[in-house]
Design goal:
Elements: E1 6-7, E2 31-34, E3 36-45, E4 50-63, E5 66-73, E6 98-101, E7 114-116, E8 121-123, E9 126-133, E10 139-144, E11 162-164, E12 170-172, E13 180-181
Parallel strand pairs: 1-13
Antiparallel strand pairs: 2-10, 3-4, 4-5, 5-6, 6-7, 8-9, 9-10, 11-12
Length: 189
């Protein structure tokens, strides 16, 4: 059993870097997730508004001994697993479909369970790339990624980390085994 620290949700924690250079696992064919119509609401928070967004397609994916529900939102102009340059604005840099994964199996989608399809996607304790979303939203194709975990998921083991403390000590995951660790990336020095 792996006793790495759990992640506690801190909004700034979601800004951790993602290793984009991690190669895909070449020998595996894409995993096709069939999506069916559904009616679920996902909360949306922005700087000015707190609202919700309709999720209209749902499918399930088994990862290890767990099954996760994946959702697609209602989209004007169709779904995309790639960046859409025509949608970029001064504040918008990620433009692919903002899909959702019920990481904690509670049947509700929280703000921290939403991900852009153009970025590596963590589902449970595995990493995936979204390689296709059918134009009609009936399927989503995923491919497993090699390499370390990335991203923060509440209640899951933390991605590998290492840093030098202000007193010169080297700190890693091993320093925090069996403990909850909150990392505030925006704390002043």
């Amino acid at each position: 059993m792996n006793h790495l620290p759990s992640i506690a949700f801190v909004p700034s924690l979601l800004l951790l870097s993602v290793p984009f250079a991690t190669p895909l696992i070449a020998q595996e064919a894409p995993i096709v997730v069939n999506l069916v119509p559904c009616e679920v609401k996902r909360p949306v928070r922005s700087f000015y508004v707190k609202s919700s967004r309709d999720l209209v397609r749902k499918g399930s994916l088994s990862v290890g001994a767990e099954t996760f529900d994946l959702y697609l939102p209602k989209e004007k102009g169709g779904w995309s697993h790639k960046a859409r340059p025509e949608r970029k604005g001064s504040l918008v840099t990620l433009t692919s479909t903002w899909l959702a994964v019920d990481q904690d199996h509670d049947g509700k989608i929280a703000v921290d369970e939403s991900y852009f399809a153009e970025l590596p996607l963590r589902i449970g304790d595995s990493m995936f790339d979204v390689v296709d979303i059918a134009a009609d939203g009936s399927t989503m194709s995923l491919r497993r990624r090699e390499g370390p975990l990335a991203g923060a998921v509440v209640g899951r083991k933390a991605a590998a980390f290492e840093w030098t403390a202000t007193d010169g000590r080297q700190l890693t995951n091993a320093n925090y085994e069996n403990r909850v660790l909150v990392i505030d990336c925006w704390a002043p020095g």
